[in-house]
Write a structure and sequence with these properties.
The protein is α+β, with helices and mostly antiparallel strands and 232 residues long. Helices cover 41% and strands 24% of the residues. It contains nine helices and eight strands. The strands form two sheets. The protein has a five-stranded antiparallel beta sheet with strand order 4-3-2-1-5. Strands 7-6-8 form a three-stranded antiparallel beta sheet. A hairpin with a 2-residue loop joins strand 1 and strand 2. Helix 5 crosses helix 7. The longest helix has 17 residues. It is elongated and about 75 Å long. The termini are far apart.
């Protein structure tokens, strides 16, 4: 993030003030805890060039200017978040707190001669959790109606998107019918198949037809096993 020298100086000052038994705590912790943010199959790409100047600006409360998606932008940077290998900036622009992808910033300039006043009530973790939930819910544009068995109801929290789970559980009827928000029909198809025989699609008809076709194909694959013939 371009803050190695600042962080090292702060570490040395802190270590000097600690009791001897605690001075080795950072090294001890580093041998026991490690953050590997990217997913298993994500490419190991270098951090974006704009990360270092933005990190310095966040550290010093300095306003920045640059281009974001080719448009000029002036931002008061509040914090940086690393999510699944992608860096995001939480910043205030025109009195609004917004989220930006760091790799979409270019021509970043840090105004080290000025400092902005941070909102003392700002909580980066809480802000990110709220915006993440809003973003996830904005993707859930489709609804499907399912009839779940008792086992299917227990599986729901493992199959449904976490943002869709509270409303789905609240919609549950005595017969196991639930209304589930999903990102798209294609995602709904994958989720319904994950339930196996513990879910029946009631609506929309197009999804019910797709699942019925998949069930028929699967039945054909295991027909010999049902008759005791084993795999073909």
């Amino acid at each position: 993030m371009g803050l190695r020298e600042i962080a090292e100086a702060a570490r040395l000052k802190a270590a000097a003030a600690l009791a001897p038994g605690l001075r080795d705590a950072p090294a001890t912790a580093a041998q026991r805890f490690h953050l590997d943010a990217p997913g298993w199959f994500a490419s190991d790409t270098p951090p974006p060039e704009s990360l270092a100047p933005l990190a310095r600006a966040v550290w010093g409360n300095h306003p920045v200017s640059g281009r974001y998606r080719e448009a000029p932008r002036a931002v008061e940077p509040y914090g940086l978040v690393l999510k699944a290998g992608v860096w995001y900036l939480a910043g205030r622009a025109k009195e609004r707190l917004l989220v930006y992808r760091v790799d979409r910033f270019t021509e970043v300039s840090v105004d080290t001669a000025r400092r902005f006043d941070r909102d003392p009530a700002f909580d980066l973790a809480a802000f990110w959790a709220e915006r993440s939930e809003q973003f996830t819910r904005s993707l859930l544009r489709t609804q499907v109606t399912l009839r779940l068995s008792p086992a299917g109801l227990r599986m729901l929290r493992h199959v449904a998107d976490p943002a869709a789970l509270p409303e789905a559980l609240a919609s549950a009827r005595d017969d196991g019918t639930v209304v589930l928000a999903v990102e798209s029909p294609a995602v709904a198809y994958t989720q319904v198949l994950a339930f196996g025989p513990e879910a029946e699609v009631l609506d929309p008809p197009e999804l019910r037809a797709l699942v019925a076709e998949a069930a028929a194909r699967m039945s054909g694959l295991y027909a010999e096993d049902a008759r005791g013939g084993g795999p073909r």
